[in-house]
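Why this split exists: single-chain examples teach little about how molecules sit against one another. For that reason, every record in the complexes split bundles all components of an assembly together and asks for one structure covering all of them. Below is a record exactly as it appears in the raw files.
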Amino acid sequence: ETGVTQSPTHLIKTRGQQVTLRCSSQSGHNTVSWYQQALGQGPQFIFQYYREEENGRGNFPPRFSGLQFPNYSSELNVNALELDDSALYLCASTPGGGGEETQYFGPGTRLLVL
Amino acid sequence: RKEVEQDPGPFNVPEGATVAFNCTYSNSASQSFFWYRQDCRKEPKLLMSVYSSGNEDGRFTAQLNRASQYISLLIRDSKLSDSATYLCVVGHNDMRFGAGTRLTVKP
């Protein structure tokens, strides 16, 4: 086990709603990254937080936003949900601020948008 | 062109077979390289990092060719438990994943 936890494990929402996903990073890790994994695809980088600041962003619209807290836990918020947002959302932590370090993944949150 | 491209698969092999996966990446400035394994409905887990000199971990051997922007993974003496999706990952400021190659090892 990586020590990275995510909640909830599963979630069903309807189009237009908002959702908040949560992640607790591994002890001692100050960097958290979020990924979206659609069925049959590899994880796609959404953004990364390092010491409470956004430290890089992938090709996702502004309705995807995040936060990192002083204890290095993190939230992913998605507004105005669309059907294509249905996916597995993965959180990963790393010990340092480098975006290219080994990622330790949590079990993910499965989001279904109806 | 995708940033990280992998063999589409699926690969179906008998136990004991040797199987090789290939991966190419587009960003020549990439700095770190990995293979991750992902079981069905589970999160990705690090299989091994990939170094320029090549590296081996038991039955698994990874190679990196920076000039050709190419990464490979060789699995020898396949086991049933090797059945999974193998993800090629390239790092440059952030991590970029390939779509994965599905491997099924059959008795």
